[in-house]
Each structure stands twice: as C-alpha cells, then as structure tokens.
Amino acid sequence: MRIDKWLWAARFYKTRSLAAQAIAAGHVKLDGHTVKAARDLHFGDRLEIAIGGVTWTVVVRGLNEQRRPASEAQQLYEETVESSARRAALREARQLAPVPGSELRGRPTKKARRQIRGFNEGL
Description:
Blueprint: H1 3-9, H2 16-24, E1 28-30, E2 33-34, E3 46-51, E4 54-60, H3 70-73, E5 77-79, H4 81-96, H5 110-121
Antiparallel strand pairs: 1-2, 1-3, 3-4, 4-5
C-alpha cells in the first residue's frame, strides 16, 4: 500500500494530496529515511511523521485501502512509548507557558487600538 494513501486512511492528514505534500517536503520518514509518496508500506514499518511541530513515531499494524472512522483508523498503527511521552511533555509545556498573544482573537477593540497607537507614538 502507498504511504500517502495509508497516512490518509490512518487520519494523519485530511487528504491524500496533503499527505503527498508532507512526504515530498520530508516530513515523513520510513525507518529514518525520506521516501516518495508511492513507496509501498508493509506491516512493522516504522514511520516518523512531523505534523505542526509535533513528531509522531508509529509502527504500522494494519493496512486499509479505505478511510474509516477514527476509532478504526487508530488500530492501523501503534505509537511508540517514547513518542507518546514526548507529545505529552510538549502538551504540558504548552499549557504551562502558552505562546504570547495566543489569547488574542480577531481585530483589536477601539480601546486596544488607542493603546497601541499611544505606545507606537511614544517611541
């Protein structure tokens, strides 16, 4: 089975074209080596998948030609213990120290615009 199709069926990417783009960009590695989207995937292969700053390390446990519900898609792979611990540590670090400005949504209010303008004019 093609790697891009498996990534789509396992619900790591929303479309096959997004999976193929990630593979072409080098975000997906098979046993530590970059591959092409058409490369065949087999049981027991180890994949490293980088999605948005988070790296998943999974072992292929099943192949499915069709995209199934998430509960079934999770049975296609087994995440390594190191990978799940690394993702948990990243999640905890994000909660303890959020990115500055992450709570800001949309356009600034009239009051905030005046504060920004006053700050910029004061320089």
